[in-house]
Amino acid sequence: MTSDNRIKFIKIDESRNMKRFYVLYPVCDTLLDGVYAVVSEYGRIGRTGRTFVKLFSDQSSAWHYHDHCIATRINHGYTPDQSSDSQLDLSSLFTLSDSPFVVFRRV
User: Fold this and answer.
1) What is the mean pLDDT of each successive set of 10 residues along the chain, which is 107 residues long?
2) CA–CA dist 29, 17 (Å, integer)
3) Model-level pTM?
4) Residues 76, 85: Cα–Cα separation, whole Å
5) Is 106 helix (H, G, I), strand (E, B) or coil?
6) How far is 33 from 72, CA to CA, in rounded Å?
7) Closest Cα partner for 4 from 29, 32, 23, 30?
8) Whole-angstrom Cα distance, residue 2 to residue 69?
9) Is 81 helix (H, G, I), strand (E, B) or coil?
10) How far apart are CA 8 and CA 42, in angstroms?
């Protein structure tokens, strides 16, 4: 699956031999009426990853889950992959505060 608006995160910790990636695609409409999907891929960098598809009955719930996935990755120490072809500027999606959690704002 390819998309210009996908978001790719990486997490590398050489001391723990950790090299992970996580790719999140934008919410997409499915062939089923009124069903929306959030697609993500994850795994070890350099290996074939796993694909996860979560279906929702309305678009707002799908976007809420999409935003939740971004916040979860950031809170778990993932960083946006600057070398990927991700076109999305993540600074427009969240603000970092003094708390360890990410606060989203919908643009």
Assistant:
1) 77 96 92 91 95 94 95 95 59 47 44
2) 38
3) 0.74
4) 22
5) coil
6) 29
7) 23
8) 18
9) coil
10) 10
